[in-house]
Amino acid sequence: MQKVIKDKGISLTIVLSVILAFAGCVGGQLGQNNSNEYRKGMVVSASEDASLVGIDILKKGGNAIDAAVAVQFALAVVYPNAGNIGGGGFLVYRSAEGEVNTLDFREKAGFRASRDMYLDPDGNPVIDKSLFGHLAVGVPGSVAGMVAAHQKYGKLKWGDLLEPAIVLAKSGFKITARQARELNGLKERFITYNPNGTALVKDREWLEGDILVQSELANTLELIRDKGMAGFYSGPVADSLLAEMKRGKGILSADDLKSYKAIWRKPIIGDYKGFKVITMPPPSSGGIALIQLLKCVEPYPLKQWGLNSDSTVQLMVEAERRVYADRATHLGDPDFYDVPQEQLLSNAYIEERMAGFNWAHATPSANIKAGTFKVAEHEETTHFSIVDKAGNAVSVTTTLNGSYGSAVIVKGAGFLLNNEMDDFSVKPGSPNMYGLVGGEANAIMPAKRMLSSMTPTIIEKNGELFMVVGTPGGSTIITSVFQTVINVIEFDKNMQAAVDAKKFHHQWLPDTIYMEKGALDSLTVVKLKSKGYPVLERGAIGRVDAILKTRWGYYQGGADRRGDDKSIGW
Ligand code: GLY
Which of 495, 440, 450 is nearest to 474 (CA)? Predict the structure, then answer.
């Protein structure tokens, strides 16, 4: 069994911190969450340990893809609530020469999945079934994604990219106060789904600075290091995963694992006031939705109205309402459903959608029954942005879906499994954990990919790299990326200020504006309410990790202070 030890061994954090501090490569800014500028490259992620791993790979001559692979595996160790090998994600790439590409390593339903698998005999969704435990798990795509990315664009040796994660898993790393709180809060859930013990459960409460050692995960990572795809999708790791499925009555099979493939897809490309926006196509809804949102607001003088003014908020909310309604109806896995991408992105269609917008009062969303928005549920996913010395950029969003996914940790292999099946429309018309309503386009089918909101994005200005951006946040991902982009382009914020700015969110159903505390001043709230917009305060929205290239050619990091995120440059 894996053991958690405190103050034993030397964590990679300390080793790397000391090396980097001596090398002076982060200009004394190590550990600061700020927008300092660097020339040679930058990594921004949800964890300082993972950002250090990425920057170290860049320093060793690795490119942005090499660093992304190393960061993805490092996050699976040091950020187990969303970093993963048992989940999936999307990658958007732009080479220094301007080649663009996207990689879909989204999870998919197993061959034995069926449309009504989460409904009770009366046809009502049994919520917990798609959220926790073995039945909630989709076929993991992350390892296939990293192998595909490395085969196509990687420069350093595959094994060298796994090594830092293996060291972090073996020697352990110091958990943050936030991680200690989360692990303590989920103790009962972990015990329920992992009765034979797991490294994530301690006999006492977790404390900030405790060392988390994950030796089973280290063994799994070594197999992936040595055998690539075969180290995960077949052999001992696959056997452990299948045994875990059997134990918990899950449905994933050896065929599901063996047949999984990551897919290179043509990026969605849009234009906003001369900025070229390169983003993720379906099965993410994020790219289409982001371009639609930008096009909806493009004709209006946002800059003149100001950040979070009543006119700005009203316009953005009306755009969001319409775009999320489209999302619910038209978007799903393009390999199973004919997504009307061209129509959704056409200028004529956007114009027509916004034509019914009335400044005097809110447009009601009430044409289908409203969903419930469970803001208490975490919106866990994680994003990282990387630029290397040559100027290659990569934007990766990866997820287990909920915080710590299904809470099932594969016995003997030490990694968490996703609960991504909840991103399907479990019952078309009923809301999922994010309150998102979906239609037939996203109904469950064997081997289909579930619709996502993840929006990894890269933006060009005048043919040059301008921004690398993305965030976790479930249904709030799209609106968080939208606001961050607008904060830079319209409101001239630097990268950190754009990330720091308070956010609001509307997703058509429920028909409510959710805002972070202080996002809108009280007069703006009164004005919006008087026009028929319900406004509710909620906790943090998004956790954006982004990089901006300044006009002088420096990289500015924006690491979200809503988490423990870090930008590190050199
Ligand atoms: N699991 C969150 C998403 O893919 O949108």
Answer: 450
Pair 310, 388 in one domain: no
Model-wide pTM > 0.85:
yes
At 286, is the pLDDT very low, low, confident or very high (cuts 50, 70, 90)? Answer: very high
For residue 426, pLDDT beyond 90: no
How many other CB atoms are there within 10 angstroms of residue 32's CB atom?
Answer: 14
pLDDT band at 366 (very low <50, low <70, confident <90, very high): low
Q: How far is the CA of 379 from the centre of ligand 1 (A)?
A: 8
What is the distance in A from the centroid of ligand 1 to the CA of 541?
14
Across 22-49, average pLDDT: 65
Distance of CA 464 to the CA centre of its chain: 25
Q: State pLDDT tens for residues 3-19.
A: 332 333 334 443 333 33
Domain limits at 294?
Answer: 265-377+454-569
- Calpha distance 334→280 (Å, rounded): 12
Question: What strand order describes the sheet that includes 504-505?
Answer: 504-505, 513-516, 535-538
Interstrand relation of 275-279 and 268-272 (parallel, antiparallel or unpaired): antiparallel
Taking the CA of residue 402 as reference, the ligand 1 atom at the shortest distance is 1
Examine residue 36 and state whether it is found in any structural domain, yes or no: no
286-297 helix and 310-330 helix, angle to the nearest 10 degrees? 140
Tokens standing for residue 249: 């009555």
- How far is Cα of residue 202 from the mean position of the Cα atoms in its chain? 28
Q: What is the mean pLDDT of residues 410-434?
A: 88
Decide if 26 is inside a domain. no
Triad 151, 154, 156: Cα angle to 5°: 120
Same domain, 257 and 269: no
DSSP per residue over 359-422, as a string? TTSPPP-TTSPPPP--TTS----EEEEEE-TT--EEEEEEE-SSTTTTS-B-TTT--BPP-GGG
Q: Is 401 in the pocket of ligand 1 (CB under 6 A)?
A: yes
Determine if ligand 1 sits within 6 Å of the CB of residue 381: yes
User: Which of 395, 418, 442 is the endpoint of a domain?
Assistant: 442
Sequence-separated (6 or more) residues with CB below 8 Å from residue 18: none
Contact indicator for 219, 12 with CB cutoff of 8 Å: no
Q: Which amino acid is at 244?
A: E
Identify the pLDDT of residue 11: 42
Substitution candidate for ligand 1 out of 290, 377, 400, 420 with most atoms within 8 A of CB: 420
State whether the beta carbon of 399 lies less than 6 angstroms from ligand 1. yes
User: 456 in ligand 1 pocket by Cβ < 6 Å?
Assistant: no
Are 319 and 213 part of one and the same domain?
no
In the set 220, 312, 381, 382, the catalytic residue is 381
Mean pLDDT of the chain: 91
Q: Does ligand 1 lie within 6 Å of residue 452's CB atom?
A: yes
pLDDT tens across 531-549, in order? 999 999 999 999 999 999 9
The residue contributing the CA closest to ligand 1 atom 3 is 452
Does the pLDDT of residue 414 top 70, yes or no? yes
The reply to whether 176 belongs to the active site is: no
Q: How many other C-beta atoms are found inside a 10 Å radius of the C-beta of residue 55?
A: 29
